[in-house]
Amino acid sequence: MSLPENLRNRLCDLLGDRLSEGAADRDHHAQSESFHRAPPPDAVAWPETTQEVSAILAACDEVGVPVIAWGAGTSLEGHALAVRGGLTLDFGRMDRVLEVRPEDMTVSIQPGVTREALNQELRATGLFFSVDPGANASLGGMAATRASGTTAVRYGTMRDNVLALEVVLADGRIIRTGTRAAKSSAGYDLTALFVGSEGTLGIITELTLRLHGQPEQVAAAVCAFDDLDRAVECVSTTIQSGIPMARIEFVDAATARAFNGYAGASLPELPHLMVEFHGSPGAVREDAERFGEIAADYGAKGFDWATTPEDRARLWRMRHGAYHACLSLRPGASGVLTDICVPMSELPAAVHAAAEDIAANGFIGPIVGHVGDGNFHSILLVDPGDEAEVARAKEVAFRMAERALAVGGTITGEHGVGLGKRALMPAQHGEAWQVMGAIKAALDPRDTLNPGKLVPDRN
Amino acid sequence: MSLPENLRNRLCDLLGDRLSEGAADRDHHAQSESFHRAPPPDAVAWPETTQEVSAILAACDEVGVPVIAWGAGTSLEGHALAVRGGLTLDFGRMDRVLEVRPEDMTVSIQPGVTREALNQELRATGLFFSVDPGANASLGGMAATRASGTTAVRYGTMRDNVLALEVVLADGRIIRTGTRAAKSSAGYDLTALFVGSEGTLGIITELTLRLHGQPEQVAAAVCAFDDLDRAVECVSTTIQSGIPMARIEFVDAATARAFNGYAGASLPELPHLMVEFHGSPGAVREDAERFGEIAADYGAKGFDWATTPEDRARLWRMRHGAYHACLSLRPGASGVLTDICVPMSELPAAVHAAAEDIAANGFIGPIVGHVGDGNFHSILLVDPGDEAEVARAKEVAFRMAERALAVGGTITGEHGVGLGKRALMPAQHGEAWQVMGAIKAALDPRDTLNPGKLVPDRN
Ligand SMILES: Cc1cc2nc3c(=O)[nH]c(=O)nc-3n(C[C@H](O)[C@H](O)[C@H](O)COP(=O)(O)OP(=O)(O)OC[C@H]3O[C@@H](n4cnc5c(N)ncnc54)[C@H](O)[C@@H]3O)c2cc1C
Ligand SMILES: Cc1cc2nc3c(=O)[nH]c(=O)nc-3n(C[C@H](O)[C@H](O)[C@H](O)COP(=O)(O)OP(=O)(O)OC[C@H]3O[C@@H](n4cnc5c(N)ncnc54)[C@H](O)[C@@H]3O)c2cc1C
């Protein structure tokens, strides 16, 4: 497919060489970090201003050409693939930090700013932005997927850290949602509605984010457990005890092996927890001691404290690299990913059942997770060319999701719906999925924005 | 007006004597805590189950009779008044705590449970529900107004503490939003959409709430300042310093006077801060010391520590009673209330400007606030029969709202829109207000649910 002649002319006038129909540019935007594949979009545009985004959307909406936003392209469920063709909007050129307000602990940015660039920019302020998915994602994409990371257990997810948005609607109207105040009761929470909407309700052109103060003291450690059950039970007990963990991450024995091979680590091939404490020196000491006592009850051993900032950076870089490290366990493999999140009391049983199912089906399927939230992933390594194997992996993933729903959990804690989780939406939401469809139809009547994702197909 | 014959028969069959068209019942549901007035509803119903709510809504929607939810009737902007007649649904009989899950720190309840009843029920668990508006509101009403209270600075508002809802839609469909997991990325955040929707999008029939552990140690104090500016500047500095305040409340000199008269206090007639610290003994000591140092810089004096649980209960009961205490400063008066919330750095100027405008216009208008969030109220005491005075008070209130918007704040931090703030919605939201209207039209096409509130009128 290609853009309608008329639309191409309008967009060329508007964007010049920031519109491309070249194969390389299109193919680059047909890639995905997971096994999902789709044909490339018809064209790619690199807008530089909100006004341009507005003009592009109005033009595409008029002639019924889909528009798909693209941040860093690191989403894991094929979110940004142009399954119905159309125009991909790459936000790589809208990457400015607009205003830091240290005294309010907020920042306003364009959507293409990446989390690493943002924290680089904030370094001198004593503040940081807390949400840290493993990839160096864009903040626009992170808002759109309601992303989280290792620190959500303490500082929350994108839901909690986005204060306000500028959004361009399908027909080109520009709106602002939220304010810079800490709270508001002035009508429907449109900010929360656009966060997690995966580019299907509107295109985010500006974000105002909550920042946090750099903790006075930080302590981090890794420790090993004899078996998976004891490691995960230690997590439940820790969270239930109320210790305000800044991070508490689980990696299983397979992941530890992957770290050794891929990241030059030398961990025993056992399940591990990686933990971090933030606060005043006294509080960090108290918290670390209390955690140490709980961990000892579960037989934790080989406590390794990361004392310098460099050691800690190395530790978390390793954790953030878990996905790619795990992929390296089977060269050429892709990952069928699960992302369930369950109530804390259900976590040990959920991880146990997942591990059993993976083993019973003969997969290499490392398990890692932001377990302080009750959230974990298994990365089922498959040969993307082997349809039968992919199908079998999807069955394992499907059963994990079903078990999560049965105990009051969710099919996706942080990655989002995209293509990969859409078939599970009716099971999770029932009639509420139709309500999502009604909202989509009200805001995007021609189904211009990222069509074929998240909501039910139109009748 | 009265109910259409057919509808009355259907509802009578369904509810028996839990449907009333009696004058006393109708008049009771025409009352409001503020100066807003409207004719009574045509009838009042007391449902006992979700199925009943569903049947009532389907029946009313069919014949175009408005349905207005009623929790405890404590909202301050005429939210629950039947401005277009119809049926008021009183949730007083749906007041059961359904399930406490201490190990997950969650609870599921019916909407008519009040915040005091809930915390009574939780006493033995070591957990508490944190959101505490001054009135003993229902949790359904608190969710519907996105309420907050004195502890929001630490534990968040209803936005942060509602995990999942059961909602009956205008046509009677029953949906569930959210899960019991700590986070989810499974599609649009319908929970956040219904929280704060003031009964205009759906009727909440069940809530799952986040609980918090009772802090190991609690310390509370009240202290006085020479003038309003220094008290409020102390708040900004405290919050910016990162001390994790559990409560930090401001009351001005007029409010202190009201407490003395109404609540038997003996405070100097000066501006005060009321503060509370939660945590481990060490952390509470550190936090209280740091706060004490900051407060001393602003000339705080007369520190009075509430050391026993009874003393603290008395302190916060007094604070919760501020609205009624202030009303007593002018017998027979009603309150025109403001509820702005601004970014922390703007708080001192905002309070200062409000106080000046109130004084310049000769009002008794005490100022109190959840200032740790940047949120404060002035209670402009008016003779509800004196239209000119009410109009003048509304002008003062309007200017406060305008100033809040000019610095990135909101017209209502916690009370919500109701009747009183609706005229300000275009100023705050611009085109986004139309988006709220489009969502309302999609979910409630016949405008059955609390019509005439929150969104623009239908064309
Ligand atoms: C190694 C690795 C580790 C990861 N770890 C985590 C993790 O810990 N936690 C986590 O949550 N995720 C994780 N992810 C997934 C991914 O990083 C997140 O989903 C991230 O939020 C995607 O951001 P992005 O900028 O890459 O978005 P993209 O992939 O470009 O887009 C994602 C979705 O957002 C939409 N979108 C993008 N920009 C906008 C915009 N401006 N307006 C509207 N819609 C927009 C797109 O249309 C698409 O639907 C990981 C991925 C990898 C590869
Ligand atoms: C003395 C005093 C102090 C106060 N202090 C505070 C404060 O500190 N913070 C604060 O936020 N508020 C405060 N308020 C205001 C009030 O308590 C809150 O707005 C509260 O949330 C209202 O709850 P309610 O149960 O009384 O709701 P109601 O007044 O009965 O209803 C409020 C709105 O919610 C809707 N509603 C009620 N139940 C449902 C349901 N089940 N489903 C859908 N919609 C529903 C109604 O239709 C209406 O629109 C105070 C009020 C008083 C009188």
Explained architecture:
The structure is a homodimer of 459-residue chains. The first copy, chain A, is of the alpha+beta class and 459 residues long. Chain A has 3 domains: 5-92, Uridine Diphospho-n-acetylenolpyruvylglucosamine Reductase, domain 2, CATH 3.30.43; 94-213, Uridine Diphospho-n-acetylenolpyruvylglucosamine Reductase, domain 3 (2-Layer Sandwich), CATH 3.30.465; 216-420, Vanillyl-alcohol Oxidase, Chain A, domain 3, CATH 3.40.462. Chain A contains 17 helices and 19 strands. In chain A, strands 12, 13, 14, 15, 16, 17, 18 and 19 form an 8-stranded antiparallel β-sheet that branches. A 5-stranded antiparallel β-sheet of chain A has the order 5-6-10-8-9. In chain A, 59% of the residues are buried. Chains A and B meet through β9, α8, α11, α16 and α17 of A and β9, α8, α11, α16 and α17 of B. The structure holds flavin-adenine dinucleotide (2 copies). One flavin-adenine dinucleotide (FAD) binds next to β3, α5, β10 and α13 of chain A.
